[in-house]
Design brief:
The structure is a homodimer.
Chain A (H helix, E strand, L loop, with lengths): L2 H10 L3 H5 L3 E5 L8 H11 L5 E5 L5 E2 L2 E4 L11 E4 L3 H14 L3 E4 L8 H17 L3 E3 L5 E4 L4 E4 L6 E9 L2 H11 L5 E7 L8 H9 L6 E6 L5 H12 L4 E5 L4 H11 L6 H10 L3 E3 L2 H13 L7 E6 L2 H13 L3 E2 L4 H10 L10 E2 L6 H12 L6 E6 L7 H17 L5 E6 L5 H10 L8 H22 L10 H12 L7 H10 L7 E4 L2 H11 L3 E5 L13 E5 L1 H19 L8 E5 L7 E10 L3 E8 L4 H4 L2 E5 L4 H9 L3 H5 L10 H17 L3 E12 L2 E4 L2 E5 L2 H22 L2
Parallel strand pairs in A: 1-2, 1-5, 2-4, 5-6, 6-7, 10-11, 10-12, 12-13, 13-14, 15-16, 15-17, 15-18, 18-19
Antiparallel strand pairs in A: 3-4, 8-9, 8-11, 20-23, 21-22, 21-23, 24-25, 24-27, 25-26, 27-28, 27-29
Helix pairs in contact in A: 4-5, 7-8, 8-26, 11-17, 12-17, 13-14, 14-15, 15-16, 18-19, 20-21, 23-25
């Protein structure tokens, strides 16, 4: 790690203590006007229980709410640690400059109406950023609800409710989500260590905030609400570091195109593709959820369970139906019903009546009481074939649900003293009779859920978190090819003003990175094509060469399975004629003649590279062919990757099953496929001028892989350098994380 | 409709009034023993408020719980309308016979331990069924929790809680789900018209119960909990009739293989494949859900909204984030964000501040109050481009959530008097401040949900219900080919003891049903194959003929793209040699030589038929190729179908999009594909001896369709006749439904 990077990380949380543990405050824009942001914020600041000094500023008033009010910041008798700003938009920049002169180093800007007010608003916002930077003031907002630190009595917000104290930090890009979460949490008694509304992120962003919360002793878990951001490298660096220490649960909206557009109009953030965020959160060791209740369920689940290595669940129940419901939920979410061991079956036969289900789900039958719950759970906890156990209960008139709960709690307590620790999840069905049992589980810190589906979600939350943490643990070291060929190919294309490499260039790049291609020749005309066909022998494919045509097959620029010189010559001439009509503008540079590959049982894959505006280069893997988007079976990983990450990436697709061997086919050479992905990752890390790459189809069978068709686009050095910086900054996160 | 069918339907609900509105009761197996089924049931019967006479029977006691107790049914001084039986298993059949002698015509058998107790239990259960049939007694159970009719004070169950009166009927195959639902419903104040635990269904089953509830005036909606059943025809007949009158919501467990196995061990029912149930519920106009809470949400949603024609939703919000969350949920569940009309945009520009989102979601910005809600909703209700509106609210300190709710309620109330009726769904985020607003919506019977996700589920529930009701409305009339060829082909195969038709037979069947195939020849040996290749001209495919090899490609029995006589002869000889080693047992009958088809841009589909053990013949459509199971892009429909149903079936796959034209390809001949599905349906309806059929691939492009490969299996007349009966019984449902 370089000194420079150390400096960058330290910089990001400079003066954060003044933001979150200030000794004195000033509210600029204090007012009595009922229902205004200034009045609500003043009430919150006074009611929060803040012990330090609070000053008010408003040039229009000498006193507000019975407190003295100063005409400007300069007149405040002390240098406040933190300023809270609620003035009209056009006055904010001036206030920031005054605060700088006064020596205040932290501000929360509640004022809204910048990013959404067109060019004038954007100009105001730039002025604020410049003023804050010039005066070294840390700024949260503008366009935010504020910040809350219940532990120190700080409520610098215009939220309608104050949170109680707790050990969870909530960081949100949307103010509306802050108030909704507080409103939802209050009757549930859920408390917070910090509530931070980031707003438009003129200065403080997710990266800075995560870095600060990483070492915040009051925070045990972090919840993020994300709509989108622009600096992916900084985010990843901080995120990977914090995720190694405490759970981070992220709710990101904008999963689809329509939603991304809406997010754009809301925050003005440049949103990347959502699947890239997905890959980034996973790579950062985070757990992604889809709804607000899931966010809190996940916190509770992770807080009440230990690390879990696998995805095999045993279900214990006193009613068959709910057992099947839980199994349905498990399988549909990608979990695995555990197989009971022979020893376990034998023990259960001795404990349970002969009518028990003799398998998983373990249905003890309706009249099972505390004794059956205790003995069965004890037995299941000892089965090494299971990674966790879900205990269900249906109310009956024949046995008390609370007594069953007590037996389960006692069993878990005593089994925890032995070494066979396994996570136990519970769901007592119903509500009227289930409520007392749920209270018992809550008191014992055992995860409990209203429905079997929710309980399975809890189990899968542990499974997904383990996957994400495994990805986090991988630190790929790129292995550059160290060969001047690719640089030369790229330089030639850029010099010629071409974005897409020609066939020779593509072939050269793939060859340097050891990605196999069929034998081929580049020729100038139909006669050359015929000669090449003779030379190659066997059937050939003929492809038009044109710097202006990317999707050759769409304009009849590809002919397959041509036999003999005559057929090749005729096809070449026909192709020229057709393309001259269809695309008269296109420059034609001859043909590319390639041996036809006869591997009818090979699987068609796609492997690719592209560059996300937020997170930089990404590697694509999936099922190939002409309808990649419709088959929709791809997975993304941020570059750089190693073989382990490539394997995990492949496992997230459906085609993975096909690669294992199918209907009598032997398994494909999976290591060879993984190697292609890793080499592509190396390629783009070493050559940031690579903008896009598609190998489609990449054939895979037992013999190995073969790239049948590939396209590579390059970009200028200027863009490329910026991208390289982003990747290096992402690596820094790994460096931070491995420090002792 | 024939008299015979009328009789069958009437029979199914005979004496149901004695079950659900008895004037007198007898409990057989009454006891004082605390915690026993007999004691709990007696308490429930006495506490239910039943106005008629209640008699107790138990040979061991002269009185129970202070009431006189008779030694047997014969001694009861009156003929009770309904008997409730809680004796040990081996005494139940005897009690049923006594009841018959007494004249009682209805019984609820609570006793468990038949189906799950091996051969002895099954024998006892058969004895009960026979006794009940002989004595014309309607039986619910055995192995059930009982039945409850709060309206008449009947609680003939050993459930731990009594339901309150309401207008929803709950019918469950699992007793555990009965108690769980009652426990869940009690604190929520949800009442029931009937609660019916069907248990092992020795007599009364889902079909009978649905037929009874169809005309039950006390029941406005029906909830079913299903694990599996055997008589699909009877179920469909009753289900289609009732769904035309009132909503039926079904929770069926066992979505996957593991779960189906568990259900099997639980109820002993012969479970068909779950996707067939899915098709059947949809065809029956029902709404399928996955969890218990969804079941009640669906009842509420359907009860509080009107019919809805489309899937386009407009989202109205005062906070951007929740709007995006709702859009995410909408798109991920298959709904469509509505496009605002130009007129609507213009009106909203006049109503809302300039910072509003200018699109859908309509984000009015955080300080929107009742006036903005009213005016905006009014405008949106007038936009014909939207099928429904979702109104969201985030709590703020600047505006009261309850005031916004009142404005929305008032707007809906006044707009309902005009003719532009659109469904409005609401979700007030949070809990503390949202609770009073939710109470207002509940009082106004406006659907309201805790989260935007739940609200979108509510909207989609209306969308799916509309789809299901559209399917219900289609009544296909099969159009038989009326040609003796197929009968002859089938007879020849059966006479030869062959399950799979040979190539000639397949070709003949497809030809009668006008399904196009490439030119082909059937030959006896390698020399014949070479001659056929010369005759056909161009490249050919060569396929081995063997009655013992179904998947020819797996044993090297298929060679493609052979050019010229020499190549065909060599391939044929090589094939013979290989198969003789790989499958020495297989009988070889020569070869099938087929012109190679050159339609590289055609889409590979699969079309097929098979016979479900519960629901009879089904038609399959989907993406074809060698990995159909892994691509997992198929949809099922019960035969018979018509062109409209075939189209709806195709639209449920991903490949549907591909058929619309993709990457410069013209749209495929969709009508031709639909015609193939309809003709296959006609084939199996006219020839119930067809057991299985696969056309894979079925090529489809702009020119039309072409069946490249097909396999057809047939079965004996005995099985086939049973199947034909099942299809006819299903048709009866349609007949019932179209009566005025």
């Amino acid at each position: 790690m370089t000194a420079n990077l150390c400096h960058a990380v330290a910089m990001s949380t400079r003066d954060f203590d003044r933001l979150f543990a200030p000794r004195s405050l000033v509210l600029v824009g204090a007012t009595d006007r009922a229902g205004s942001v200034g009045a609500v914020t003043l009430a919150n600041l006074r009611n929060g229980g803040f012990a330090g000094a609070l000053y008010l500023v408003n040039p229009k008033h000498a006193s507000v709410a019975g407190m003295p009010c100063f005409p400007d910041v300069g007149h405040v008798p002390q240098t406040p640690d933190l300023a809270v700003i609620a003035t009209p938009p056009d006055r904010v920049a001036g206030v920031v400059r005054q605060l700088g002169d006064k020596g205040t180093r932290a501000a929360v800007i509640l004022t809204a109406g910048f990013g959404e007010l067109g060019e004038r608003g954007r100009a105001m916002q730039r002025e604020i950023s410049e003023a804050a930077a010039a005066q070294s003031i840390r700024v949260i907002g503008p366009n935010c609800v504020g910040i809350m630190v219940p532990d120190v009595g700080l409520n610098a917000s215009f939220a309608h409710l104050a949170p109680s104290n707790g050990d969870v930090a909530f960081v949100s890009q949307s103010g509306a989500l802050i108030t909704a979460v507080l409103d939802w949490a209050k009757p549930r008694g859920i408390g917070f260590s910090k509530v931070i509304s980031l707003g438009d992120m003129a200065d403080v962003d997710f990266g800075d905030t995560l870095e600060y919360l990483r070492t915040d002793a009051a925070t045990q878990a972090i919840l993020l609400y994300v709509e989108g951001f622009s600096d992916g490298g900084k985010f990843m660096s901080a995120a990977r570091a914090v995720s190694a220490n405490k759970p981070v649960i992220v709710l990101k909206v904008g999963r689809n195109a329509e939603a991304a557009r809406a997010a754009h109009s809301h925050t003005g953030a440049l949103a990347g593709s959502d699947v890239v965020y997905d890959a980034a959160f996973r790579r950062a060791g985070m757990l992604r959820v889809d709804t607000m209740p899931e966010m809190f369920d996940a916190v509770e689940t992770l807080g009440r369970t230990g690390a879990q290595s696998g995805d095999r669940l045993t279900i214990l129940t006193n009613g068959g139906g709910p057992g099947v419901m839980a199994t349905d939920a498990l399988v549909s979410r990608g979990g695995v019903p555990a197989q009971l061991g022979a020893q376990t079956l034998e023990k259960l036969n001795a404990i349970l009546p002969p009518t028990w289900s003799h398998g998983n789900p373990v249905d003890m039958i309706g009249d099972a009481g505390p004794k059956e719950y205790r003995e069965t759970l004890e037995t299941l906890l000892g089965d090494p074939g299971s990674d966790a156990i879900l205990v269900l209960n249906c109310p009956t008139a024949l046995s008390d649900p609370s007594e069953a709960a007590k037996a389960v709690i006692e069993t878990i307590r005593t089994s925890r003293t032995s070494d066979g620790v396994r996570n136990v999840f519970t769901s007592w069905l119903g509500e009227y009779s289930a409520a007392p049992a749920r209270a018992l589980f809550d008191a014992a810190q055992i995860p409990t859920y209203d429905t079997p589906d929710d309980a399975v979600d809890g189990f899968m939350c542990r499974v997904r978190y383990a996957h994400s943490q495994a990805v986090l643990a991988e630190i790929p070291v790129p292995d550059p090819a160290a060969d001047g060929t690719v640089d030369a190919v790229i330089a030639r294309a850029l010099a010629a003003g071409r974005r897409w490499l020609d066939s020779d260039g593509v072939d050269a790049v793939l060859s340097v990175y050891q990605i196999p291609t069929p034998p081929s020749r580049t020729v100038a005309d139909a006669a050359g094509a015929a000669a090449a066909a003779r030379e190659l022998g066997g059937p050939v494919a003929l492809k038009l060469r044109s710097p202006d045509i990317t999707h050759k097959s769409e304009v009849g620029g590809v002919a397959l399975d041509l036999h003999g010189e005559e057929e090749v010559r005729n096809a070449a001439l026909a192709m020229l004629q057709h393309v001259k009509t269809a695309r008269p503008d296109a420059r034609l540079e001859g043909f590319f003649v390639q041996s036809m590959v006869r591997r009818p049982d090979a699987i068609e894959l796609i492997a690719g590279l592209s560059v996300d505006p937020v997170f930089g280069p990404v590697v694509l893997f999936g099922r190939g062919g002409t309808a990649v988007e419709i088959i929709a079976d791809t997975s993304l990983e941020l570059a750089p990757i190693n073989a382990a990450l490539a394997r995990l990436q492949m496992q997230r697709t459906r085609v993975w099953r096909l690669l294992q061997g199918y209907r009598g086919q032997p398994p494909a050479a999976i290591d060879a496929v993984a190697a292609v992905l890793v080499r592509l990752s190396d390629l783009i890390v070493e050559h940031p001028q690579i903008a896009e790459l598609d190998i489609n189809p990449l054939l895979a069978d037992a013999q190995g892989v073969l790239a049948l068709d590939a396209r590579i686009a390059v970009t200028s050095n200027l863009e490329a350098n910026a991208r390289a910086r982003s990747v290096r900054s992402r690596d820094a996160g790994d460096a931070v994380e491995v420090r002792p």
